[in-house]
């Protein structure tokens, strides 16, 4: 048996293929991370197919993740290739005892490194554990076209995005009752966008990067994929209605949202606060972005 024959790696590969088939991962766009269970780590070690690489700085400190193992996509790797060459496109990484470095235990056999968004992924994983959501194991970043298009039509405001999408499909307030966090455009792979995203992940399971894509957190791969899918479908409906010259004023009203709350035993976010929206023209300045190594 090879490591990529293990059930959790197969599920990871399937999720990558699902995202590719949804057209959410052009070229090498997007990335995915999964926190392994202790039993899954034992399964990997029992196969005796791991050769620890050198410790490499993460770029951020995530002490709560010390000693944990993750499956991640590789920088510059294509989601459509994962199914056929997992050992080249994926990596299993181990976090050191301080949460400051990682080393590759398997994968990326032809060279390379984990996704350039690794700091964002690990900071998001850490914030979920810090606030007690220890069942969250997956962070999924993709580039769904309608969600990105929506960021051209709405201001980068949590409440506006959340209530707009809640109004498109009855399922939305059931699937993401806490709402959606939104960040104006920032440089991908930067420390700033990692910190800003993890800040919002303390409140939401969905964060939209304007003109870029979406980050979703889930307890498993299906949950994270389904969350992304629901947001994207709601955005698609909004785009289609507007493109057809329709009026979205007759979306599901907040009165009916409250009826859905009672029917499905959920509580919609009603306190979005007054988070200051960063200047979209200056956000992300001061950080370098290595050309050709994104995602």
Structure, described:
The chain is an alpha+beta fold. It has two domains: 1-116, L-fuculose-1-phosphate Aldolase (3-Layer(aba) Sandwich); 141-273, L-fuculose-1-phosphate Aldolase (3-Layer(aba) Sandwich), CATH 3.40.225.10. It has eleven helices and nine strands. A nine-stranded mixed sheet has the order 2-5-4-3-1-6-9-8-7, sandwiched between helices. Helix 5 packs parallel to helix 9 (191-201). The relative contact order is 0.15.
Distinctive features:
38% helix, globular, disordered C terminus, L-fuculose-1-phosphate Aldolase, 295 residues, alpha+beta, 2 domains, 9-stranded mixed sheet, 11 helices, single chain
Q: What composes the largest sheet?
A: 9 strands, mixed
Strand-residue proportion: 5-15%
Helix coverage percent of residues? 25-40%
The CATH C-level name of the largest domain is: Alpha Beta
Strand order of the largest sheet: 2-5-4-3-1-6-9-8-7
CATH H-level superfamily of the largest domain: Class II aldolase/adducin N-terminal domain
CATH-defined architecture of the largest domain? 3-Layer(aba) Sandwich
Mean pLDDT: 90
The total of helices stands at 11
């Amino acid at each position: 048996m090879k490591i990529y024959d293990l059930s959790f790696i197969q599920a990871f590969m399937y999720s990558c293929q699902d995202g590719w088939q949804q057209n959410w991962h052009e070229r090498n766009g997007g990335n995915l991370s999964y926190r392994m269970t202790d039993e899954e780590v034992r399964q990997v070690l029992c196969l005796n197919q791991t050769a620890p690489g050198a410790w490499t700085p993460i770029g951020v400190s995530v002490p709560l993740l010390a000693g944990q193992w993750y499956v991640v996509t590789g920088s510059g790797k294509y989601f459509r290739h994962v199914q056929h060459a997992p050992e080249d496109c994926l990596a299993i990484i181990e976090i050191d005892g301080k949460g400051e470095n990682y080393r590759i235990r398997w994968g990326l056999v032809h060279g390379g490194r984990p996704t350039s968004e690794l700091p964002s992924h690990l900071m998001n994983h850490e914030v979920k554990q810090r606030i007690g959501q220890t069942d969250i194991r997956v962070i999924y970043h993709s580039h769904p076209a309608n969600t990105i298009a929506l960021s051209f039509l709405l201001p980068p405001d949590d409440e506006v995005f959340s209530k707009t999408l809640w109004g498109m499909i009855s399922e939305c307030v059931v699937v993401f009752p806490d709402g959606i966090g939104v960040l104006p455009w920032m440089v991908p792979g930067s420390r700033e966008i990692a910190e800003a995203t993890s800040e919002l992940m303390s409140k939401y399971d969905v964060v939209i990067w304007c003109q870029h894509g979406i980050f979703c957190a889930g307890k498993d791969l299906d949950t994270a994929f389904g969350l992304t899918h629901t947001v994207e479908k709601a955005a698609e409906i909004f785009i289609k209605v507007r493109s057809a010259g329709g009026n979205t004023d007759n979306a599901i009203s907040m009165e009916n949202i409250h009826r859905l709350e009672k029917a499905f035993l959920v509580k919609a976010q009603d306190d979005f606060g007054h988070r200051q929206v960063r200047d979209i023209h200056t956000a992300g300045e001061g950080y370098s972005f290595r050309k050709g190594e994104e995602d």
